[in-house]
Amino acid sequence: MGGSAVGGVPPLDPEVRAALASAGDRARQVLTPEGLTAWQERDLAARPRPTPDQLRDGDRFEVTELRVPRADGGGEVTLVSARPAGIREELPLLYYLHGGGMVTGNAWSVLPRLLRGWALPLRLAVVSVEYRLAPHTRFPGAVEDCYAGLAWATEHAGALGVDARRVVIGGKSAGGGLAAALALLVRDRGGPAPLGQLLLSPMLDDRGDTFSSHQLAGHDTWDRTSNATAWQAVLGHRYGAADLSPYAAPARATDLSRLPAAYVEVGSAETFRDEAVAYADAIWRAGGEAELHVWPGACHGFDSLAPHAAVSRDAHDARTRWLRRVLQQ
Which residues have CB under 8 Å from 252's CB, separation 6+? Predict the structure, then answer.
């Protein structure tokens, strides 16, 4: 349901609100088309990009950068493969797609948290994908990069030391949307079938007309103006097209059957709230499996903004339980 909001804005969790206040204006900056280049330059300068040696963390992890061919023959995709050191057995794989609105971010910055939070306690390997960013590369460049990397990783599972039968694809924000698109693409192409899809605050709908997108306009850390700017960069002249592919915006999909089990997470005070809830509901309606969490008082990126808040810890624990359960199947 679109249109203007009534009844105010859901309150923020007190710990999240305090972290947001401490972050100041930078946490509420709005991305506009005119400011996109400067936004990307700031992100490139400020976002951590740990080296393989730093990621190895004193030989706790084995880390390798790989370059694999794109399906269209137009160059290569960079993958960063990491796993706990000293384990010779085949490990389950988390194939992870970073966030950043499909206009910023990199494959390296997300790894320290993934390795500490999941690779060690769950004994799993991680492959993070350096997909091409918009507007330099528009749809379908990013999702095709993600598909090429997944196909290569499963085909070369033995060399990576992973179990191709136990793969979860996942990501946050733009990465969550790409993971959902990748699940659709793999299903329709008959590609390597993952066990699950981990969709954290996923960016699913280019139309930007849900109730929550209007309700949180000017309030969320990523609001409908920033979201529209990113979608325009990704889609170019196809932005707003009636026949847009679900591989671009998974909320456009009319068939959500035969998909891997989904974990869908979003905040109650988040722009993406309603599109994420609708996506989980559509999976259920298609006879699929989805676990949905709407974290009270959480805005977009709440767990990065306030990692020690109780709601952030609860979210991490819920994701971990789901991952463990899916990977043990």
Answer: 205, 206, 244, 245, 246
Query: Distance between CA atoms of 217 and 18, rounded to whole angstroms?
Result: 20
Q: Look up the pTM and report it.
A: 0.97
Neighbouring C-beta atoms of residue 55, cutoff 10 Å: 19
Judge contact between 139 and 235, C-beta under 8 A.
yes
Q: What is the pLDDT of residue 72?
A: 78
List CB contacts of 149: < 8 A, sequence separation 6 or more. Answer: 68, 77, 79, 95, 127, 129, 131
CA distance 211 to 35: 26
Nearest to 37 by CA among 200, 302, 233: 233
Alpha carbon of 205 to those of 202, 217, 245, 251, 279: distances in Å?
9, 16, 11, 5, 10
Q: 169 - beta bridge partners? A: 95, 197
Beta-strand relationship, 76-84 and 61-69: antiparallel
**Coil, helix or strand at residue 260:** coil
Q: Is 86 exposed, middle or buried (0-12, 13-18, 19+ CB in 10 A)?
A: exposed
pLDDT tens-place string over residues 253-289: 999 999 999 999 999 999 999 999 999 999 999 999 9
Q: Please count the other Cβ atoms lying within 10 Å of the Cβ belonging to residue 24.
A: 9
Strands (E), the chain: 61-69, 76-84, 91-97, 125-130, 162-172, 196-200, 261-267, 290-295
Tokens of 11: 């309150």
Alpha-carbon Rg for the chain in angstroms: 19
Q: CA nearest 136: which of 40, 248, 246?
A: 40
